[in-house]
Design goal:
Layout: H1 2-35, E1 37-42, E2 45-50, E3 57-64, E4 70-79, H2 80-86, E5 96-101, E6 106-110, H3 111-115, E7 120-126, E8 129-130, E9 142-145, E10 158-164
Parallel strand pairs: 1-10
Antiparallel strand pairs: 1-2, 3-4, 4-7, 5-6, 5-10, 7-8, 7-9
Length: 165
């Protein structure tokens, strides 16, 4: 009787271990799939934007870090205004856009800044290299703002873009 109970316990533990490993693997795959996308929250909806589907344009510009050092980089990506328009966002109903990184760092841009040609971009490549996501080797995106006195509003590991009235 004891042997039978031990076998049942062993089989039950094995089943639990297999289920746990399966759950961990599934969650890891979901996170990696989400790493190649950005969520757009607008008008009460949440839309996934796969980064690979963006109609990318080459652009370049100068950014300034907190020490006042200037850097010029070559990028590939899309203007934030074009991204929003492509997703049929009514820009006349938007006053600000908040973007959030994987670590919850966020920055806000006014609609005037978004409408200013060449000011606010979503970049997927910097200097010929893909922008990395939160996990090494995964695709990611970053917001780039030109004309700021420092790069505090440049957001890396971008996960969410939210429009606000």
């Amino acid at each position: 009787m004891k042997k039978k109970t031990l076998w049942i316990a062993a089989v039950a533990l094995l089943v639990i271990a297999v289920l746990a490993v399966g759950l961990i693997v599934r969650n890891g795959q979901t996170a990696r799939e989400a790493a190649g996308a950005v969520t757009l929250k607008t008008g009460g909806q949440a839309l996934q934007i796969p980064l690979g589907e963006l109609d990318q344009t080459a652009f370049s510009g100068e950014t300034v870090n907190g020490k006042g050092e200037r850097f010029t980089h070559d990028y590939r990506g899309v203007p934030l205004k074009a991204l929003l328009e492509d997703r049929q966002v009514d820009l006349s109903a938007v006053s600000t856009v908040t973007v959030t990184a994987a670590d919850q760092f966020s920055a806000e841009y006014t609609i005037d800044e978004i409408n200013e040609k060449g000011k606010v971009w979503l970049a997927v490549q910097v200097d010929g290299q893909g922008v990395e996501g939160i996990d090494p080797g995964t695709p990611g995106a970053q917001m780039v703002v030109f004309g700021d006195p420092n790069s505090k509003r440049n957001v890396r590991c971008l996960t969410e873009i939210e429009t606000k009235p």
